[in-house]
Amino acid sequence: MGLVPAFNTLPSPGGPLVYSLEAHQFAVYGLEVVSAGQHLLTVSNKFIVFDLSSGDIVRIIDPRIEGIMTYLSVGPDQRYCVTTTISNQYIICNLLTGEFILRDYQTPGNANKTQVKSALGQQQPLDPLLGAAVSNTHFALWTSKMYQVYTNKDELLTCQPTRYHIIQIEVLPGPEIEIVCRSEEVRDDQEVPRDRFTIDYYFITNPDHSNNTIDNNEQRCLTGGHKNFHSALVLTRDKRRMYTCCEINDNNVEVYVNRPHPINYSTERIWAFDHQLFENKDR
């Protein structure tokens, strides 16, 4: 095991330098260890895959974009990844074959209004992409208050607005999304005592099926339930436990467990308080 920092030359933080992994012309804005820990996928204006045992370059994929890629998300089976770019494009890349799809991001009603001029005269996206999330079959893209979900063949399934700023999205099997948003309007230059958030779960509507059934007409059950929290959030990989701060007047870390809804137990689940992990006196 080793640490891999996100810098242009990717030096090892502390200890002896093993490999510099210097190949990108610009700074690296996304990286992921793939192939069972054997390779390192990095993105800048190109995809470059390094062999972590030798430091050699395994593959270079050049999507020939203007600018650089700013976000990287790799599917759990590591067959493909999705990246976003500074030019408000997104790239779906097959990591096995090197094939890729490059698309301009469009939001409903903004097909002809995708860019505005900055004070320096540069063209900037009107609603810039902020992130991407990938499952084995679907992926999601989001801006500040809008998210879109696609199949891995680039078929748009849904486009949904949110009331407040989106922080993070995870695409779960089903398909289903786990979305973390702010629970209040906060300006970029505004200081608040605590950052307040919500976590929610939604099924991705398939046009050929109802929202809460699968092919054999069995009801689907959401992975988790709505929860308000502040400051921090940690979820176990299996979505069975949540560690967070929920009380408004303190920073105590509490543990919540994932349980069936007491009434709608076949279709919904809730985050139920289990115990306080420790008392945090910091304010």
TrEMBL record:
InterPro entries: Quinoprotein_ADH-like_sf, WD40/YVTN_repeat-like_dom_sf. This is Uncharacterized protein.
